[in-house]
Amino acid sequence: MDRRDSVRSDLPLLPGLISSLGRCNFGHGLMEALASICGARHCAFGLLSERQLSPFGAISCDGTDTAQRQFSIYLSGAYWRSDPMMAQATGSADKSCAAMHYARVEDLSGFAVRNMLYGEAEIGERILFCGRYDEGFAILSVLRSLRQGEISEHQMDHLASYSQSLMALVRRHIDLVDSKVDISTVLTSLPLIESILQSADIPLSSREIEVCSRILFGISTAGIALDLNIGEETVMTYRKRAYQRLGIGCQRELLVWYLSRCDEAKFARTAALH
After folding, report:
1. Could you read off the pLDDT of 59-68 as tens digits, one per residue?
2. DSSP tag of 82
3. What is the pTM of this model?
4. With bands split at pLDDT 50, 70 and 90, how would you rate the model's confidence at 133?
5. Spatial distance between the Cα atoms of 274 and 228, rounded to a whole number of angstroms
6. Which residue, 113, 174, 227, 261, shows the most beta carbons closer than 10 Å to its own?
7. Alpha helix segments (H runs only) across the chain
8. What is residue 3's predicted lDDT score, i.e. its pLDDT?
């Protein structure tokens, strides 16, 4: 099969990937496409600004949580700051063309945490894509296993031919996810609700946050009292104080206020990777 036939065989993957933009299955479609194009086993993508790398997805081809675990380590230690490939990619990317950098893991001798990030997962090669945008850089990290041997020149050419399309899709997906709030996510995790309330412009006391979080989570006044080991009247006192601080008068208004301040892209992605 010549190169044109190989490229043509991957085209059916793109419509499905496009249709999944902004949805939870986008990452799996992206992983399937990368596996078909270059034999990738893991991928992770996110948005890099001056101060932080915000994760949007980490997927492994075999269905394990390997990519999520490795990406979580990479983020928690802010290792992207000392990553030589990241420095090269962001230095060469521009708005008209996504940068594509390849490296064998064994050659990343200047990366102090190389073995921790890639050794345990038996990663042999990494291809890093980077596209510059007004808000920062869209990043796509593609990993191949040691067991596969080195990527072929044909596979590299094949991947390069898709680089602009893939990065455009990643960026569009990030935009769509950033622009919406997933109610099923921001109302079904008590730690997540508490995190969002803690970040509110109007400071609430720790007890007021605990009470309001449980109200939003759907726990009754009696249930909140049992959970926090306080009296029901005390629960109502904290609720009243919180409502006064927020300038609201009922549970429905608390929900409206909460959803208007949800940053699902920031909090839900972080929670999912830890």
Report:
1. 999 888 889 8
2. S
3. 0.65
4. confident
5. 25
6. 174
7. 3-10, 13-19, 26-38, 66-76, 84-92, 114, 153-178, 183-186, 190-198, 206-217, 221-228, 232-246, 251-260, 264-272
8. 39
* pLDDT score, position 262: 72
Count of residues in the chain: 274
Q: CA 65, CA 248: separation in Å to the nearest integer?
A: 42
User: How far is the C-alpha of 183 from the C-alpha of 180, rounded, in Å?
Assistant: 9
* Alpha-carbon gap, residue 138 to 172, rounded angstroms: 10
Within 8 A by CB and 6+ apart from 81, the residues are: none
Tokens of 254: 């608390």
What would the two tokens of residue 202 be? 């109007």
Question: What pLDDT does 201 receive?
Answer: 76
Residue 19 has pLDDT above 80, yes or no: yes
